[in-house]
Amino acid sequence: LSNANEPPQNIKHSMPPLSFSSLPIDIVVEILARVPKRSHPILSCVSKNFSRLVRSPEIHKIRSLLRKDSLFICFVGKTGAQWFTLRRAENNNPTTEEKNRFVSIDLAFLSQTEQKPCAVAIGPEIFFICGSFNPSAAMWILDSRTGTFRQGLSSRAERLCRSVGVVGSKVYVIGIYGDADEMHVESFDAKTQTWELAPVPEDQGWWWSSAPTVSLNRKVCALRVSGNARCYDPRDGSCESLGLATKDKWLWRTGACVMNNVLYVYYARFGLMWYDYEMRLWRVVGGLSHLKKVRSVAMAEYYGKLAVLWEDVEVGVSGETKSTIIAEVWCRMIALERSERGVHGIAEASQLLGSVLRGYMLHHCLSVSD
Predict the structure, then answer these.
(1) Which of 214, 245, 328, 362 could, after both became Cys, cross-link 282 (CB 3.0–4.6 A)?
(2) Exposed (0-12), middle (13-18) or buried (19+): which is 10, by Cβ within 10 Å?
(3) Per DSSP, which regions of 247-322 are E strands?
(4) For this UniProt entry, which segments traverse the membrane (predicted)?
């Protein structure tokens, strides 16, 4: 027999294994809110519970308190571009007017030969792809957290950029290369910082996008002047049409946005519409019929809601020597709820953000996040 005063030997204290799901729900939400937004699609694949949580209002409310997200908005005119950011107010109890702050920022694009580059965002970085009017292989990258530009790795060859979209961590550039008007696709991997060729679209039609190019079901979707949407699958080059509902002449000034893998497009004639992928048809978002129809719209996701921006009434501003014609910039936040009956929108009151010189049109509205 062992001495009773001696400590017991080889006794293992077993403890039940801890799991993330065993944590209190409020702790889980606090943790998930701090995960970079670009990783939310991966979290959604973990479980149905995770998929529900990353889309929950609680997540977006905590992220708003942390001020994790912002919009970068660009207006382009004959004399150049004006950039603004839309951010949450710094104080903890903002008034309605202070809730979203519209701040002018100095973003002098460093390329002297490219005035209107294509632009897409991945996480906190904005990628500017040159070649909109003159063939180019250049790319510039803006870190939205510091406001600093750096020159990215040039693509394999100069090309005229037709459409640019993001799928996962890759930027896909559909363009025309060489004198033979031959179409190719290159992808830039933001993780490995490398370019590689991607399959050529089986539809070699005109890929000039007249509205922001979006990503839907891991495909690059471009809205075209012809009143149609063409989606390109970078895995095999296959293409499909979404058959937009109208040949609205204002399509080239409309907005498009994907939220929770649902495509939303705004038409001045019909208002906000969404694409029912299962039924293969376009439907009007309910609950918004009372809203005034507007033009020159840009849209982006902002803390789980759809931010709709537009230019409105001309205002004369008297100066000592002359009057300047300006356009007011307005914003409305819309919460979207999907059910078996469709998508229903709940709109907040519109907010006047500021003004720009008349003639400057909405060109980019990019959602960035840490």
Answers:
(1) 245
(2) exposed
(3) 256-259, 262-267, 271-276, 281-284, 297-302, 305-318
(4) none
Give Cα separations from 325 to 190, 240, 313 (angstroms). Answer: 41, 43, 10
pLDDT band at 248 (very low <50, low <70, confident <90, very high): low
Report, as an integer, the average pLDDT of 228-238. 88
Smallest Cα–Cα separation from 107: which of 367, 369, 370, 364? 364
**Crossing angle of the two packed helices 25-33 and 57-66, in degrees rounded to 10:** 50
Distance CA 48, CA 75 (A): 40
Strand 297-302 and strand 305-318: pairing? antiparallel
Alpha-carbon span 69 to 183, nearest angstrom? 36
Burial call 178-204: b when 16+ CB within 10 Å, e when fewer = eeeeebbbbbbebeeeebeebeebebe
CA pair distance 212, 38, nearest whole angstrom: 19
What is the reported pTM?
0.82
- H/E run at residue 367: strand 361-369
> In this structure, what token pair is assigned to residue 237?
């080059």
Q: Tokens 């519409």 label which residue? A: 273
Tokens of 141: 């990258």
For the chain, the domains span 19-66
Report, as an integer, the average pLDDT of 169-183. Answer: 84
Do 230 and 207 meet the contact criterion of CB atoms below 8 Å apart?
yes
- The pair phi, psi for residue 21, each rounded to 5°, is -70, -15
Cβ–Cβ < 8 Å for 308, 324: no
Distances (CA, A) of 334 to 68, 120, 275, 315, 345: 19, 22, 17, 26, 6
Q: What is the pLDDT of residues 296-347, one digit of tens each?
A: 789 999 988 999 999 886 555 555 545 567 889 999 999 999 998 899 999 9
152: which 2 tokens?
Answer: 């990215």
| Tally of residues, the chain | 370
Closest to 263 (Cα-Cα) out of 209, 221, 291:
221
State which amino acid sits at residue 252. W
244 is written with which tokens? 């937009």
> Mean of the pLDDT values across residues 163-183?
86
Task: Please tell me the predicted confidence (pLDDT) of residue 321.
Answer: 45
